[in-house]
Design brief:
By secondary structure, this protein is mostly helical. Helices cover about 55% and strands about 0% of the residues.
Length: about 70
Amino acid sequence: MTTGKRNTQGMAWKLPPLKPATPAWGAWFQQALESHRQGRLDHAQRLYEQILAAQPRHFGATHMLGVLLY
């Protein structure tokens, strides 16, 4: 039995599994935001990238890294 939405051909969508959030990512993200606010952009970038290496679908890290690199 397959769960989830189906596409127009009746086949189930295949999405990568979500990894459960860990408290470390939240702390890393807060630290990255603080570094970003303080202008320590190299440090903030490294933290955003570490978060995304561990949890590629982390919206906040993806967004803020994009802001930083823009």
